[in-house]
Amino acid sequence: MLLYGASGHAKVIISCLQAAGVAVDAIFDDDPDKKKLLTIPVVGGYRAEYNPGEPLVVAIGDNRVRCRLAQWIQHPFGTAVHPSALIDSSVMLGNGSVVMHGAILQVDTCVGNHVIINTGASVDHDCTVADFVHVAPGAVVCGGIQVGTGTLIGAGAVVCPNLNIGRWATVGAGAVVTRPIPDYAVVVGNPARIIKINQPL
Length: 201
Ligand SMILES: CC(=O)SCCNC(=O)CCNC(=O)[C@H](O)C(C)(C)COP(=O)(O)OP(=O)(O)OC[C@H]1O[C@@H](n2cnc3c(N)ncnc32)[C@H](O)[C@@H]1OP(=O)(O)O
Hints:
Elements: E1 2-4, H1 8-19, E2 26-28, E3 36-37, E4 40-41, E5 56-58, H2 63-70, E6 80-81, E7 86-87, E8 92-93, E9 98-99, E10 104-105, E11 110-111, E12 116-117, E13 122-123, E14 128-129, E15 134-135, E16 140-141, E17 146-147, E18 152-153, E19 158-159, E20 164-165, E21 170-171, E22 176-177, E23 185-188, E24 193-197
Parallel strand pairs: 1-2, 1-5, 6-9, 7-10, 8-11, 9-12, 10-13, 11-14, 12-15, 13-16, 14-17, 15-18, 16-19, 17-20, 18-21, 19-22, 21-23
Antiparallel strand pairs: 3-4, 23-24
The chain binds acetyl coenzyme *A.
């Protein structure tokens, strides 16, 4: 497996892959001062000709940056799933997506491409999690929820059942979402309230 981005997020992905018995051979990063992450060599900026058939995961936590890079990279995309994650056999997991330590994906949930289901997060039954979403550590997404493209569900947030969460929205850490959230909205608190609407991409 190859990674793009020698970040803290990449360290967690390496931990997942190593626990699953998958070797990480190299990491691309544009910063010439980065030479190694944990024990893995950092080999410079992205090159399509570097081991072209080897799967790659974009190891960048920022959803917009991960989206931009994924549309440009020419390698096939792999997935990283920690063995402690509980994933129902009905779950669909897209290319480039990662499921960290202790995360739970329940029955009939569909997870798109380049999604992060972070440490200890849970996404319950019948959810649809679109591409480039990040469900941060400890967040709880209850049953029957649609999460739109590029949205961040912050650490420890709770999203109540059967709600529609828009595209490129941000749910603040610890928020309790009780109503649908529009595209690009940033919400915080319990119950969650909109504090601003971000600019579209
Ligand atoms: C492994 C990992 O680390 S994964 C990392 C996952 N990341 C996260 O979970 C972080 C999620 N981000 C947040 O919660 C952020 O605070 C955001 C995005 C909601 C807001 O960030 P910003 O847009 O920079 O807002 P800012 O910090 O200026 O705060 C604006 C107001 O909202 C309040 N606020 C910000 N975040 C929260 C929150 N999570 N809960 C309650 N209130 C909040 C601030 O106190 C401030 O209130 P004030 O105007 O009365 O002073």
